[in-house]
Amino acid sequence: MNTSQKHWLAAGLVGVGFALLYWHVAAKLVFDWYNDDNYSHGFLIIPIALYLAWERRERLRAATATSSAFGLVVVVGSIAVLVAGILGSELFLTRISILGTLVGTLLFLFGWRYLRILAFPLAFLLLMIPIPSIIFNQIAFPLQLLASRFGEAAMGAADVPVLREGNVLILANTTLEVAEACSGIRSLVSLLTLAIVFGYFSDRRMWVRTLVAVSSIPVAVITNGIRVAGTGIAAHRFGPAAAEGFFHEFSGWLVFLAAFALMLGIQQAISRLAPEAAAPAPVGAAA
pLDDT value at position 282? Predict the structure, then answer.
């Protein structure tokens, strides 16, 4: 058995141990993806990350595996984080330790070169982990207030009488509450994930990929504010039913598509203003 086969055999054994260690954490994570609409995109993260890793297969084959003892330190530290998360009933710690253990295992078995090659797929896995509640609430509530203020201003500009009290919009015929689900954080997380994937495949330049990903944040906030304003105007013109049920859900999908179209427009504008340089022609091509 050569060195490469020994490395992969060790990786297989470690994989079995990894599954036994984290099965309960993974089961709760999948449960949250299924039941929490804010993180339903989590089902797509692992397949996309696996594709990104498969895309690097030639670079991995060309790289030389050199074990690093520091990886063992990372694994031990990640398991300590897992234990702390279990004892403290902190789901985020147990979940983030999954990535730490993956990184440490890769480093211990294959070395720094493999880790550098797989850095982006591993970092992409962060998107599958729900934000801790204490941070989530610190983001969601300001977004609720921002969306309600945007809605108040837009409805006022459309000559719709409205009174805002916090995140509650009081109209002549109904009252609208910009709840947590309408704060825009759901579309923000999903659009950010989509922007990272889209930016990765649309341009090779890191600064363009970063700009496309960052642009998804104001795009999500603005389009959600437009949705709130549109819902208020529709409720004023056509009655409270326009702000409930199918119409409300359909407007969410419509606004998300509009947000993606706007993000696509931003990427196209960047490509036109700063075209990507053509790849150099191979030696002898001119001949």
Answer: 45
Structural domain includes residue 280 = no
Structural domain boundaries enclosing 10: 3-130
Is the pLDDT score of 281 beyond 60? no
Q: 7 in a domain, yes or no?
A: yes
Give per-residue pLDDT as tens, 247-278: 667 777 888 888 889 988 988 898 888 887 65
Got the DSSP string for the chain? --HHHHHHHHHHHHHHHHHHHHHHHHHHHHHHHHH-GGGTTHHHHHHHHHHHHHTTHHHHHHSPP---THHHHHHHHHHHHHHHHHHTT-HHHHHHHHHHHHHHHHHHHH-HHHHHHTHHHHHHGGGGSPPPHHHHHHHHHHHHHHHHHHHHHHHHHTT---EEETTEEE-SS-EEE--GGGSSHHHHHHHHHHHHHHHHHH-S-HHHHHHHHHHHHHHHHHHHHHHHHHHHHHHHHH-GGGGSHHHHHHHHHHHHHHHHHHHHHHHHHHHHHSPPPPPPPPTTS--
Which stretch of 178-182, 219-223, 226-230 has the lowest confidence by average pLDDT?
Answer: 178-182
What are the pLDDT digits (tens) for 146-181? 888 888 888 888 888 888 888 888 888 888 877 766
Do 123 and 248 fall into the same domain? no
Query: Does one domain contain both 32 and 85?
Result: yes
pTM of the prediction? Answer: 0.80
